[in-house]
Amino acid sequence: MTAPAVYTDATAEFRAATETVALYDNSDAGRLKAVGTDALDLLNRLSTNKVVDLQPGQGAPTILTTDRGRILDLIGVVNLGDYTLLLTSPGQQQAVNDWLDKYTIMEDLEVSDITAETALLTLCGPDAEESLSDAAGTSPAQLLPYHSLAASIAGQEVNVIRRPLGQLPSFDLLLAPESQPPVWDCLTAAGITPLGAEAFESARVSLAIPRHGSEMGDAFNPLEAGLIGSIDFHKGCYIGQEVIARLDTYQKVQKRLALLRFPDDAKVSAGDSLERDGQAVGAITSVSRNPADGQLVGLGYVRNAAAKVGERLGLAGDAPGWAEIQDLPQLFGPGQD
After folding, report:
1. 113 burial class (0-12, 13-18, 19+ CB within 10 angstroms)?
2. Which residues contact 274 (CB under 8 A, 6 or more apart)?
3. Strand order in the sheet with 71-79
4. What digits encode the pLDDT tens for the residues 9-43?
């Protein structure tokens, strides 16, 4: 099952996710199972972050990039002991699998798509950790981002992975499809609010989390997308490394991902251009209305010269209003010195 647009009320669902705790069916996210002694070594040689030393229970975000330094996908790499779990963007598991297969020559590695063989629930919100502790009888407090532990909820085995949604605490629950209904029922019976796709998307945009197909993909590089914190500049070569290192060293990044605010009555949509002094300086990639306060917010890419917090940009054409830059987000922080 996947999340419906709304369970009961989008405003209540959004408030639960951002103020207390909510439960989202995240099963659309791709899941790959990597088995073999060379799994982490190959991923380390192909992606931006250092993952070769991940021990069982540890994980990290990393990016697969093309030889031009463009984003193939942002993935989560989690060493579950028996195998390495790769969490991909929705619908990107085959592209990631094909990419790994392309560069697997003599390595001991076998990758299989387990998206249909598993389910993924996401428990998010300021009270997520406490709620998970109550349900599982074990505390995830010691978990670092992307690290995992085995737990039991409603008598069902789950792998708990701490995967923050921007600044929002969040835990993924990886489990068998047949375990999903009893776990879902247990958590919602404890008062946790089911979160629909509409409120989840509003939270994603408000939290400035890039999405594949909107803010991530072949049109963008990781530095533009604010993903520098998932790049290890000291670990050595990977596909696209020379391009990304050169962009960083010589400060050649041309545009930045920006969190935008619009007038409440603005008529804007993804793809609309942003202007300054009559010149195009960017484009909107996502738009959502905050269900809690009605504020219209969005994400977009803005050329460096205009990418300043507080800057007000015009909307292209005859559209009235403006777009004010609220933040230049970095999903995993500012990265290494």
Report:
1. middle
2. 280, 281, 282, 283, 284, 300, 302, 306, 313, 314, 315, 316, 323
3. 59-65, 71-79, 84-88, 30-35, 110-113
4. 999 999 999 999 999 999 999 999 999 999 999 99
- Residue 277 is encoded by which pair of tokens? 């002094």
Torsion of the alpha carbons at 17, 268, 223 and 214, rounded to the nearest 10 = 70
**Whole-angstrom distance, CA of residue 144 vs CA of residue 164:** 10
**Measured between alpha carbons, how far is 320 from 74 in angstroms, rounded to an integer?**
35
Q: Which of 37, 45, 67, 54 is nearest to 235 (CA)?
A: 45
| Helix or strand run (H / E) with residue 123 | strand 119-124
Q: How many CB atoms lie within 10 A of CB 270?
A: 13
Nearest to 64 by CA among 83, 36, 105, 92: 92
- This prediction has a pTM of 0.97
Residue 60 near residue 146, CB atoms below 8 Å = yes
Instruction: List the structure tokens of 66.
Output: 């093309």
Specify the pairing of strand 193-195 against strand 22-25.
parallel
